[in-house]
Amino acid sequence: MSIIVFGSINIDLVAKAPRLPLPGETLLGHHFFKAPGGKGANQAVATTRLGIPTYMVGRAGAHGFGSELVNSLKAAGVKTDDVFIDDRVSSGVALITVDDAGENQIIVIPGANGNIDNQDVARLAHLLPGSQALLLQLEIPITAVLAAAQAAREAGVMVILDPAPVQSQLPDELYPLVNIITPNEVEAEQLVGFPIDGEESATQAAGILLQRGVKCAIVKLGAKGVVCATAEETFFIPAFKIETVDTTAAGDAFNGGLAAGLSTGLSLRQAVVWGAAAGALAAMKSGAQPSLPDRITFDKFLQERVVSEGGKEGRSEGGKE
How much is the pTM? Predict the structure, then answer.
């Protein structure tokens, strides 16, 4: 079974500095590099490296890194026949600052990603039969996200939505089309309107997202772990203990690991552990796509850490196991 990723393709321009700048402040950094990124492309590379055949549907610009980005996806093994080269604009660009603790600030210039429309959805639709999952994010127009989710629902394909960059007012009709939504604590706070500062508030937020129509809500709490809720059960998976280097693509790696696990037939709980492991590995290296683990590295990490940390079964409340 294959996975389809419908979303953004960017070039990341990354500056590393001792800390993140204050408004109006100029800091001296100590390192700069560029790397392929974009939440859509990152997730496509993440699932491909974990051994799942993956199709990327999106747009790159004819100027400004376009060929470089498509060739990078091909080199990673992602199927790129449905990446459209848009000669009207440049490719998407992300300006990223990373501090020495691994925290980041990101500004995204959509470029070609902002032109994604129903023509791209039509190219996506022919890939849906036989696919296991469709991964969506919000670095492309929300109208295209909604249309893609509707097409996937009609085809009986699971929809996994990463609501980032967050929009506090997602269309009401989008939620019932989503099988799994995966906000981090900042995104969850924007969606539900109250602070998310730990397992209890994350559980409350997940419950609200379920009420809006999603089948499963996963709230990612970074180093604090992950809360996952469905109508049948709610459970908590603790985070893997790591030395954080750069969290830039950790959320994309999580979604890639989650989708890959579900595609191989794992239970939801096991797939969430896969997501947590992939996210942890990504946070241990610099860059977006360069940080995403291959299957050998992933399997070794998962085997060693699950044993050394006493398993990742987590806590559960109510319903079936």
Answer: 0.91
